[in-house]
Specification:
binds 6-O-phosphono-beta-D-fructofuranose; globular; alpha/beta; single chain; six-stranded mixed beta sheet; Rossmann fold; 3 domains; 536 residues
Length: 536
């Protein structure tokens, strides 16, 4: 399966030319003045997610060329190859079929195994309270942590009473120790989540948890420890008799839909888990069938490519205006940067163009009081992605509920104001016209106004969800997954391997015995010096 790389398409050169003539000087304020219909023409209702793309520095010509680029790169064939289960993760010889995990029964590849695995996992999850458990400690890292932890937090309003979820990922004992401190073995269930069951951090935490369990009087390891893994054998060697298995065609960072989602199912129950899958499936169908020009993951990725490769923007900030989504940026960091942070194409040739941007962010409004200063007035242009939720879901009543609903209006007003401010900016003249601020007597009005002016024309995308529900969250996550797929497909890279994490792991294994022995022989000066500082 060979597709032309983006830079081999004539559209690539045409986009470069268009950027020079029009893109570089594109002004959002002028675009809105010239196009009264800019909002309806540049917004789209996808399943569960409404997207306003109108505050992006893009015009119809750029979009047409980007769509041409997608066609030239065989985007639709690449997409179909993924859905058809071809081994598109060619460096590991694996299919990429997380979409099969959320297909309805009878549809999608591997349906029989998928449904069997789902039913077994949900039956276990639903029975957890009846087994006397009040606390579930989920131990896993990367894709075996970020997705489940983010979703459980996001769906807190759907949580079942009487069950508390704890997530431990870091090999740093400061992660595990405080969690264990508050628990009793008799009422605690440990879920050890590791696709490979070889990950150092997870195995270390699992062994420590087991030691704590036995020392604190726990007796029934088989009841209190279960695993989610595609390496059932290794889980068995660890002493775990109940393992929920899955397949090598589920990538770690795409695995929350599989048995790795067990803590989600425990937290919110089987029906809500199924709704999460259903929302994702709706987005899969949209991605699979909508024409490219009305296909939200495609449009988002095309704008990403336009920004990264032609505007040269190096990062993208994600601002979810919902406290439940505060771990979304961390989740997206793995999804996007582990998938598309690659420097060679599928044939191993060094790429002459940039790939994944840095993805980062924080829940609104907290981010506003930290780094938004830079977004508004800094020297870098950083596209921002706002996520707003129309209807909140508070577990409250009476006056408290009234107040919280009122706070929600404030939250939404902040969200709208930030994207408005980024776009509108404020000229020096406008700042001069304002009531003079209190400033040092030595500063003249012009100087003060320059400090108080904003360049504006800073792009953003806004997503609106009617509510943050299992279904809408499923759709939102799937939207991001497919968007990452599309930009990776255009860049001609393998978005599904992660060789870049291996070197550090290998060096760590080599350093570990040296630390204990204080052996710095042959190490570079810095590593040797640091090791000596850190040695016990
Ligand atoms: O960090 C590398 C990585 O392999 C991720 O891709 C993966 O999500 C994580 O480690 C955890 O791996 P496992 O589920 O096998 O423990």
């Amino acid at each position: 399966m060979l597709f032309p790389r983006c830079d081999q398409s004539p559209a690539w050169a045409a986009l470069q030319a268009h950027y020079e003539t029009t893109g570089r000087g594109f002004d959002l304020r002028k675009a809105f003045a010239a196009e009264p219909d800019r909002f309806p023409s540049w917004s789209l209702q996808a399943p569960e997610v409404f997207a306003d793309l109108s505050k992006n520095r893009i015009d119809a010509v750029a979009l047409k060329l980007l769509l041409q680029l997608a066609e030239d790169c065989g985007l639709e064939s690449q997409r179909n190859a993924m859905f058809a289960g071809e081994a598109i993760n060619h460096t590991e010889g694996r299919a990429v079929l997380h979409t099969a995990l959320r297909a309805p029964a009878g549809a999608g590849l591997h349906s029989v195994e998928v449904q069997e695995s789902l039913q077994r996992m949900l039956a276990f999850a639903d029975g957890v309270p009846a087994q006397g458990f009040t606390d579930v400690v989920h131990i896993g890292i990367g894709g075996s942590d970020l997705g489940p932890a983010m979703v459980v937090q996001a769906l807190q309003a759907y949580g079942r009473p009487g069950i508390k979820l704890h997530f431990v990922s870091n090999v740093d004992g400061h992660d595990l120790a405080p969690v264990l401190q508050a628990l009793k073995p008799a009422t605690t269930l440990f879920v050890i989540a590791s696709k490979t069951f070889t990950t150092q951090e997870t195995l270390a935490n699992a062994l420590a948890a087991k030691a704590w369990f036995l020392a604190a009087g726990g007796t029934d390891i088989a009841k209190h420890f279960v695993a989610t893994s595609s390496n059932t054998q290794a889980a068995g060697t660890f002493g775990i008799t109940t393992t929920f298995g899955f397949w090598d065609w589920v990538g770690g960072r795409y695995s929350l839909w599989s048995v790795i989602g067990l803590p989600i199912a425990i937290a919110v129950g089987g029906e809500n888990f199924r709704n999460l899958l259903a929302g994702a499936h709706e987005m899969d169908e949209h991605f699979r069938s909508a024409p490219l020009a009305q296909n939200l993951p495609v449009l988002l990725a095309l704008i990403d490519v336009w920004y990264r490769n032609f505007h040269g923007f190096t990062s993208r900030s994600v601002a979810p205006y919902h406290q439940g989504l505060r771990r979304l940026p961390a989740y997206l960091q793995q999804l996007e940067m582990e998938s598309n942070g690659k420097g060679v194409d599928r044939e191993g040739q060094v790429l002459p163009y940039a790939t994944s941007p840095v993805v980062w962010g924080e829940a609104g409004t907290n981010g506003q009081h930290a780094y938004f200063q830079m977004l508004h007035q800094g020297t870098d242009v950083i596209p921002v992605e706002f996520i707003a939720v129309k209807t909140p879901r508070f577990n409250a009543s009476g006056e408290l509920l009234e107040r919280l609903n009122d706070q929600h209006q404030k939250l939404l007003a902040n969200c709208l104001a930030q994207s408005q401010a980024l776009m509108q900016g404020k000229s020096v003249g406008e700042a001069l016209g304002e009531k003079a601020p209190t400033a040092s007597a030595s500063l003249d009005a012009q100087t003060v106004a320059r400090h108080r002016s904003f360049p504006g024309n800073r792009p953003s995308t806004s997503f609106v969800l009617d509510e943050l529900s299992p279904r809408s969250l499923g759709a939102l996550i799937a939207l991001y997954e497919h968007r990452v797929f599309v930009s990776g497909a255009l860049w001609g890279i393998n978005s599904f391997d992660q060789w870049g994490v291996e070197l550090g792991k290998a060096l760590c294994s080599a350093l570990l015995p040296r630390i204990a022995a204080g052996d710095v022989a042959g190490l570079d000066g810095s590593t040797a010096g640091l090791m000596q500082r850190l040695s016990r």
